[in-house]
Amino acid sequence: METKSILILPASIDKYRAHYIIPGTYKYLTKKIRLSDFQLTNSQQKPIYFGAKGLYSLIKSFSVINREGIVIDSMTNSDYLIMKMMQQENPIQRDINRYIHQNMCNSIQSISPAQLQLTEEVNKQDATKLGAYIDLSFMSDYLMKRNISNDFMTLMIEWVDVSDVENGYEFSRPPSLYLDEVLTSQPVDSDSVFVYNTIIPDKVVFYAENEKEASGAYDIKALKENTTETRFNSYNQQIVKNMYFYVPRQNANSSINNLGLTNEDILDIKINLISDGVQVMAYSGLDTDAKRLAHLNDNVNEMCIPAIGAYSNLSTEFNNFKMEQKVGLYNPNTNIQYSNSHSYTAFGLNKMVIGEIIVQFSCKALKENLNEPMFLQTLAEVQRFYKPSTNQVGNLTM
């Protein structure tokens, strides 16, 4: 197959969002749509380092829209990409993937410890000096399920707030869209209906029972437990595959801080699901870190070792939690101790939800102000379909 790369400039772009239009007058590969040829800068001339989502920290939401203005696929919470990125290794495209993962201390390959110190501690590879690209196809299961298309598409990208990136950011050169035109006689996809997964978020509100102390030291067994049982209405009459749960970090005003890191002040998480009156997990559900990590590996894929190390809330003393005694990977660029920073829970539901899903959640949460709410974030893989001939898009049912 012969292809050539085509550059598409944004139809409109500002600091909030960008629109790119694929005209549909030629055949192109849907699995290789990416943003490139951009440059970041900071008004204070400081380095820019991202959090757990790497370069995807720049994108708040992403949508694929057809000629009639119908949203075929979208991702309104890009934290889902963390689950996909924590599985990635970089032996083939070493440089590109290292750039993507370096800021989350994940999948790092280096020639020597001296090289690691040079790049990670001396600010030699901040985002203002990287020539990387952002793979948009990686964000859409619809684009990954297709191969060759000649459809008209509008790609809408919403950028994250400046405050969501340490030291802030702006594009000194705006990103361009690149795709590969197919020059040979391979036909476009002949499927009449495309079935794919899309990510539907939801959240549960709860309140902490334990006030944070100035000493930062806690006896885990003496902490009070939060318990909540909530019915979801977001997934009725839908085929749900994997469901992910985590407690995100929050800003000073209690809004969710969408940096892709979980709240480190949450201990002893226990979680279970009831679907249509049937308990998904027997024997108290996922009531230990070991069980939650095992199901995350079983339902998603094996995690990289740094991601596993950032999964549990580790301390140097058993049954005693002290903020200054946390252990785990430390990233000097982002000033983050990667202990309990990827505390995700995964359930493999894989069924049609007829009536309801109920989540049973308990934890030992710490909060400076007990009257401020906390959130249990949910990301569910829901199966959808798209029929190009009639422009029908909807949830797939049995």
Question: How much of the sequence is in beta strands?
Answer: 35-45%
Mean pLDDT: 82
User: How many domains in all?
Assistant: 2
Number of helices: 6
Radius of gyration: 22 Å
Given helix and strand content, the structural type is mainly beta
Report on the biggest sheet.
5 strands, antiparallel
The N- to C-terminal Cα distance equals 37 Å
Q: Please tally the β strands and state the result.
A: 27
Strand order of the largest sheet: 2-3-11-7-8
Helical content (DSSP H or I, runs of 4+) = 10-25%
Taking pLDDT < 50 over at least 5 consecutive residues as the criterion, the unreliable ranges are 90-111
Shape: globular
Structure description:
With 398 residues, the protein is mainly beta. It folds into two domains: 3-190, Adenovirus Type 2 Hexon, domain 4 (Distorted Sandwich), CATH 2.70.9; 195-384, no CATH class. It has six helices and 27 strands. The strands form eight sheets. Strands 2-3-11-7-8 form a five-stranded antiparallel β-sheet, with no helix packed on it. Strands 14, 18, 24, 26 and 27 form a five-stranded antiparallel β-sheet that branches. Strands 15, 17, 19, 20 and 25 form a five-stranded mixed β-sheet that branches. A hairpin with a 3-residue loop joins β2 and β3 (17-22). The chain is globular and about 70 Å long. The chain starts with a strand and ends with a strand. 36% of the residues are buried.
